[in-house]
Structures are given as structure tokens and as C-alpha cells.
Write the C-alpha cells for this entry.
Amino acid sequence: MTKAGKTALIIGGGVAGMEAALRIGQAGFDCVLAEKEEVLGGTVLQLSSSFPRWENPLELVEERISQLKLCGRIKIMTATSAIESRVSKHGYSVTLQSRNGETTNLDIDAVVLATGFGMMDVSVYGEYGYGIYPEVVNSLEFEARIKAWSAGLGKVPEGVAFFKCVGSRDRSKGYPYCSKICCMYTAKQAGLVKDMFPYTKVYVFYMDYRAAGKCYEEFVREVIEKKHVTYVRGRPAKILPEGGKLLVRAEDTLIGIPIEVSVDIVVLASAAVPRRETGPLAEMFGAKADKYGFLERQRFSLAKASDRVFFAGGCGFPLETLAAQQEGASAAAEVIELFAHE
Amino acid sequence: MQTKRVINPGERIPRVPEAVFLFRSCTGSLEYPGTESAVKETLKFLGVEAVTDPDQTCCSGFLQACSAYKPEFCLAVTARNLAIAEKKGLDTYTFCNGCYTGLSEFSHTLLSHQDQRAAANELIGRWGYRYEGRTAVYHVQEMWYRLKERIAEGVVRPLKGLRVAAHYGCHYLSAQYGILDDAGYPTFHEELFEALGATPVFYKERQLCCGYSVGRGFTHKEAIVQPHLHKKIKSAAVAGVQLMTTVCPGCNVALDREQPNLNRLYGEEFHIPVIDLAQLIALALGVPASKLGFAANTTSLDHVLKKLNCDKGS
Amino acid sequence: MDADTTYRPLFLNHIDDSLRTEIKRNCSVDVELCMECGKCSGGCPNGHVFDYTPRKIVQLVKLGDRQTLMTMDALWICLSCQACVDRCPSGIDIPAILDYMREKACRTGAKTSRPLVRLFHELVLSSIRGHGRVSELDVALKYNWKAGQPFKDARLGMRMLFKGKFRFYGNGVKQRAEVRRLFEKSVIAKDVS
């Protein structure tokens, strides 16, 4: 890395991190994009489709990767994590370690944290049997199922039920916040199942559906009205195993009667939580996190967590792909502004 | 009060006491005296002395479930009962979910409301009782789970894979905080079954309430409680359950004594004996069946005892 | 006779938050935390028999509908199993609301759909007052008599008698006076005859 110019370190190679690296690199500054997995792409790699346009998310990832590679100022380091950091004269002196044990020392002038979000462990909801019944899965695990079905693998289900708000909007056992994207991705997943298996019964158990975005409401209505997914208002109370299937017990709150439905698979739209790496990294770089571990931005700023430290994407709060990219670009803008004035 | 929901047994009972105040249950000690014997035998095996006192009264917790009153009465009664345990310097252990809830909820109210405690103490002070909150309230099922290894080591009559189903009842798990398992999917009874050499059965309506809830089994038995019990016992029968355990004498009454009525009303042939968890443990520990009061059970467990080679005599 | 087709919407302007604050003060339950998800009703073992499911009961508090709360059927057939509270994402204690409303219903003499349940509770309390404990024989006999089904449990009663399950005499505790004094000091004791 040229010591003469400025260097930014982006930790996290998901769509937010890639966007930040791309913008900073294209603006003419050096940057290092460190990703702990073997490949770039983050959570989006696990997705089988996208909302609201039903596009293949891998195409976006591939597009970004080729752009990154074309830009001469970006050094991509996969299978690499940041393990240590010291404040230095112009910024930070960071030690990166790759999976085979090799360490690299970097002097950087700014860091962008883009470590993304993960799924809450919903086994705490014993009434739903996650971790007990193999056919109760969380939404990310279900994306893998959808991919398998698309490849012709796996048994065709007769019935699938989606539970929204598992862990979200729950002051008792989960988190009080709304995880923002589950209403949309659940509609997406439900729609995909119906596309693949038109005769399969698909139910979505909801309290509300939140579709605040361009083409979002139309997307959900399409899933309900054109793809014929059944939406039932009521948070399920329990899952019982019966006859080799899963029996869901809930109330249809709109009429106010108890209902039961027997399905093969239950998908729990689990609360989004910051990934474990976020906490230690926040501490390493003096970034503030809220009580759930999501990074906090300073007042009046878009992406600044602390001096020379910025963040973007799911590590700040769960959000959809486009929004993560936009946050990556915002973080990049603040880094560029910082570099340009020094 | 504890802010964590599920805590592990070592945290719940940090040090196993040498003696405890065993709180007798109105329903338990009278309907199923064998349950009380089993509890005492098991405590004895575990090296814990069970101290009782005839001065105690009913916990009065059942009134809360009936509730057409104000709790001052129950608070005074609870304060008086716990004062007895306090005077002996012992923690209170009960073997009934109802007593557990009654005693712990009321004692929590007494301890967190200075004025209520003062009022209760004033009432009971007339006869020399005083409650200061120095006795903690537990259910013996917590002790069994805490000392699961010791019980496992002491099994001399392994239960030969007997298909045993748990009925946890509602009122221990409904405490929600500071208890050994979560009501969502409790498993600590099943762990005890395995320690005793039995096969736990997870039947469909495992977590359904027994339906008796103080008085409901009397006031609308046919209309509501019997269909409800039918649902429960049917699902156990379908799952091939051979024996069911409870940790609440109230539940025991419902599940045990209604079976002949259900058979008559619904043309069923249910025969699932229902006993207290302590009785099952005591059997496995080698306590003779004659000491465990099974004559009080409506649904006889003679065939089970025979299968385990512990017919009435031995 | 034609059905009553008078348009009678619930006029929200007439609703104040007095019931809500009363419940909050007396039962420590804040119904504003309810997000109307229905998980309580979904798991209620008696939900199918209730005229107002648990979620609806909370909604009744929000609407200040004391009348319905005191006269509804669900008030007396709740099993207090606590499944609703356990699963509620906001921890709303519905049994506590019902306990409180039952007490109010008794005290105000509200018309109930299940007078026999009220009768049962009153007999239990009067038995305690009289004997110092609940004498099941006392309660059972009086209940069946007053409920107009004097011989309902006669056969069972006979079997129990022969098995020595109860006695006709000596059903009181030794220190009846103590219990009675406790009882009388409790404010509501006056309401039980």
C-alpha cells in the first residue's frame, strides 16, 4: 500500500462493504476490502431471489466483484479478519489475519465497518420447536431450501407456514424492535414456493405487513392476489408434531376464532441481530453500539461512528440490499470527504 | 425477582440444604398421601431431612384461582405459614404446583410491598407469628432435578424402558422467571425419566393444562373440563403412554380420577395410571410399593408394578 | 318481531382511559403494551369456548367496556393456566385482569352467565369462615342442593363415604377463631354471607 496517499480499510465484503470499497477506489483513494469468508458477497449470496423485482441477487454480486477487480486501487483480501488495532498518527494501525494464520499490518486513515446482520437464535421459543423439529427452520435456512428445490432436490412440500415476527417486536423473549425486512422477504419466499409448487398450500401468519418502499405494497399484493398465498392475521401460539407433520395453533384475530393448520415446514422469520464480530470490532475502533449491538451514528452524520470510523449496512440495523448499497455509498462519501480535506 | 427466565439448577439451589421445611398440600396430603410419603422417602435418600409442622394451614393459593375476594386474607395466611418455616430457619419446599405459585407469588407481594407485609404481620402478630422473608420457596421437582445424578446413581429398580409421559402442569412453569425450564418446551422431567431408565414419550398435548383448575372441575365438569381432559388423555393413549407423572396433586386428581368417567362418556378404554413424579423416583430407588400409597389411585397401576417386578408386597 | 336494527356504533369519543388506568393500578397490567397479535388466544385451551378470546378481553379493557368484562362467560371459565401470559410478547397478565374483574363482578352483583360458579366460590369462602378450612363435604352438598341437582354426586359420595374419605363431624380446624378473625379483617369478608 502506498503510504503517501490515503488508505481506507473496509471490514466486511457484503454488498455494503463492496459498495463502499468501490466508491472509495473509484474516487482515487486506496482501499483494502477484508472479508472473513472465502468469497465476497455476504448474506446476499444465500438469497434465492430479491424484492421487489424478483431478480437474481448473484448477478448483482458478480457485477460488483468484476468492477472491484477492475479498479486498480482496491486490494481484496478474503478469508481475512481484523484482529487488532492501535490508534496511530494518522489513523489506525491494524493487524489483519488470514485463515492460514498469516498476519498483515496496515496503516490506515479510515475504516468502514460493514459486518452485516445475522439471525437470532430462536430456539428460545420452545413453543415453536426450532432445534427440536427438523422441519422448523429460520428464513436464511429456508433460502437454502428454495435453492435446493430450484435445483430439483428435496421433497415437494404439501404445506408451508411462515411465521413473521419471531423474536422481533417481542419484549418478553426477544427484541422490541421491528426487523424491517421480514415482511418483504417472507412475501418473497412465500411467492417463490407457490411459483415452484402451485398445489402446495402456503400460509403466512402475520401481525402486520410492512411494505414501505417503492413497489413494495404491489409486491405483497401480487403474492396474495396473484400467487394465492393465504395470509392469516395472528401470531401462532404453538407448533405440535402430529402424524409426521407440524400442526400450527393460532387465532385468526380478524374473526376471533381458534384455528389450526397442518403443514410440512414452518419458516420462522427470525429477528435480525448484529453479527458476533461487530461487538469486538466496535470496541477495537471506539465505535458506539446500542444495547442490541447495532452501531450508532453520531448526530447529524450519515455513517460516522467515531473519529475516522464509519459503518454501513446490516451492522447498523437490518435493511434490504439496495439500502445496504446506499449506506455503503454514504459511508464512502464521508471517507472521501475526510480524505479530500486532509 | 429473578430477571432471567430459565436458570440452571445449580443457580436455583446453590447449596443443597441438610433440612427443609416440607409444606404439605391440602389436596396432596389428603387425596394422595402416597405422594407425600414418596417425597419424604426421596428426600431421605438424598440426605435431606423433611421437617413438617401440623401448625401449617392450606396455602390458600387456590383462592386466587377462584378469586372472588381480595388477597389480604391470602397474604396473611401465607405470611403465617412461611413464618412457621422461618422460625425453624429452613427454606420451604412444596410438592404441589398450586402451593408453589401461591406461596411464591404471595411472598413476593409481601416482600415487595412494605405496607402489605406490615398489615399481614399485624394480623398474624396477635398469635405470635412474624414473617420477614427469610425463607425461600421451592418446589421439590427442583430438588429432584438438582440432584439428578445422585438419583441416577441410586436407581436399583430401573424402569425397563417403561413409556412414561410427563404432565408438567401449569403453575410451576407459569412463574416464567427463575425456573428450571421454559414453558415453551420443557424437558427436565423427561431427563429424569431417562435417568430412571424409562422411555420418555412426547405426546401431542403434553403441555395442555389438566383443566381442573380449582373448582372448574366441579362447577362445569361435563361442559368443559371433561372434553378437555378427553383431548389430553386421548393424545397420550394414541402415543402409547404407559404411565403419566404429575407434580401437582390437583392435576393428579383430574388426570387420574376422571378416566373412568371419560371411558363411560366417550366409549374409550383409557387406562393410563397417573402418579406423582416423586412416587416414580421412589419406586426406581427401591422404596417398596406398599409405602407409596398406590391404593389411592383410581386408575390402578398394578400392571405397571408387575412389569417392574415390584408388586404390592415387595 | 323484527330484529333490532338500530345503528349503534361504539362511539369512541365516549371512551376515556379510566378502566385502563384502573387495571394498570390494581393489576399492574398495562394494556397499551398489547400489540393485538393473538398469540394468547392461539394457545388458550378454552379459547374455543370463550365468548371473548384472551386477545379480545384485552381489547375490552382498551375500550373501557366494564359491563362486558363483568358479565361475559369467559370470566368464569378461564382455567388460570397462564399459557397466555407465558407466551405474550408483552407479558400481559390476562388472568390478573380476570381475577380483578371477577372480584368486581361479585362486589357489584353483576349479572353473570355462570351463577353456579359464583355460588361455588361463595360457598368455598363461607366454608373457610365457618370451619377454618374448606370442608369439601360442606361445599359439595350445599352446592349441589342450591344448584338444583341434589343427587348429582350421590353415588360417588357414597363410595367416598365408605372408603372413609370424609366424615360428617369434626370438619373444622381446632383454631377456628383465628381463621375467622383473619377472615373478618380482610376487607371483602363482609361481602360473603
About this structure: The first strand of chain B starts at residue 19 and ends at 23. Chain B has a mean pLDDT of 91.
